[in-house]
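Let us practice reading a record.
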Amino acid sequence: MIDKTPPRAKNRCGYRRIAAEEGTRVMPGRDPSIVLIVVWFGPLPLWMPAFLVSCRRNPDVEWLIFTDAASPPRLPPNVRIVPMDADALNRRCAAALGFETHISASLPYKVCDLRPTFGLVFAQEIGPRDFWGHCDLDVVWGDIRAFMRPEILEGHDIVTSRIGRISGHFCLYRNRPEWKTLFREIPGVTSLAQDAEHRNIDEMQMTELLRSHQASRGARSLRRWATRQALPRVYWHATLTTSGANQRLLLADPSLSYRWRDGKTFDAGGTEMMYLHFHQLHRTMTTIDFGYEDAPGAFRLEPAGIFTG
């Protein structure tokens, strides 16, 4: 069933959040394991050093990046680059899903439609981890485990970073067969996945599916009980990252910035977030003043780029 926990209070930037200080974390090694999956075709983005610096400070979370780009130097030990081009991905999808896909390097955004299938497509690489998920690269991570507390992961099957909606830039699925195949319940999903155009399966279609479970909870619960199928427990009542509206504040005011400091991320108002999503800012970014060999203790994200200090 859908999580009914009351939403958190809004902060001064206008969105609800989970405070990192809420709750008490258990000992390291007891947390459910997490692996986040990225598929990326073409050269890696200029902000990739910042992405990797932030991954390094989350040693108990793993990333798998399937890409046709060359591997950067000095990868963190919890980040693995897996060579894969679009043709190899299509072959992998056909074998795992039972239908053809038509991903191409010229239309890379179509990959987003396949994100709910990653549990099947990359089952070998995911292995026995407790949760697999998908994310974007236009992200700088904060202290993930301060927000993904054990009681959240142990009590839910799907965890996302937006209120009442599945997020493409961060969503976790419990690594069980019923959630690996949940996407098959989306009406017409095979046709949507095979369409050359992006159909927003990972966000809109999956959100609608989960909302339909909630709207017809009684009938669906009875049917699933009869077939011994569980209803997904969804955690989606808090905003864990920066919104598009919040990014537009930075675009309008050059004095504002996002900050990463000692493994934590902060929005323009100083509120700690689980991660900074800067999908609008990166359109104007032209520079970063550190590289793969560097290990800055702090940096800031601005419309012009990413700068240490």
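A brief commentary: Residues 1-27 have pLDDT under 50 and may be disordered.
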